[in-house]
Design goal:
This protein has about 130 residues and is mainly β. It has one helix at about 15-20; strands spanning about 25-30, 35, 45-50, 55-60, 80, 90, 100-110, 115-125.
Length: about 130
């Protein structure tokens, strides 16, 4: 699956120069090594992300590099522009129809307003 251009960041230099701390992704679901039944048509993915200022967006991707997915599919890329400074939990339910049995990667990327990023990947299996 490819990463699609979803949002253009338009931030002034002042905002970027003050915030040097990247967000932190503290948990991802499914857990690393989890097995998902091939009988499911979708799966719930969750992440908890925090930042010293605020989270600007969170992106979930399945098989982001060297994808075995049949074709790039924007339905499996989720995007949030957080407006609630206290929001820390993010959830997405992508379709997994068409994903082959075997190992896959879920990548979660969290950005703050200064474009600092945190990335966390977990491997999961479809049987």
């Amino acid at each position: 699956m490819e990463l699609y251009h979803i949002q253009t960041f338009k931030l002034n230099k002042m905002a970027r120069s003050k915030d040097k701390q990247a967000p932190v992704i503290t948990s991802v679901y499914p857990a690393d090594g989890a097995t998902i039944s091939s009988g499911n048509t979708s799966m719930v993915v969750k992440a908890t992300a925090t930042d010293d200022q605020s989270i600007f967006q969170v992106i979930f991707q399945i098989d982001p590099v060297g994808a075995t997915y049949p074709a790039p599919d924007k339905r499996n890329v989720a995007f949030w522009q957080a407006v609630d400074f206290y929001k820390t939990s993010y959830e997405f339910t992508p379709s997994i129809q068409g994903l082959a049995s075997g190992e896959h990667i879920l990548r979660v990327t969290a950005y703050d307003r200064a474009r600092n990023a945190a990335v966390r990947e977990v491997r999961f299996f479809i049987n």
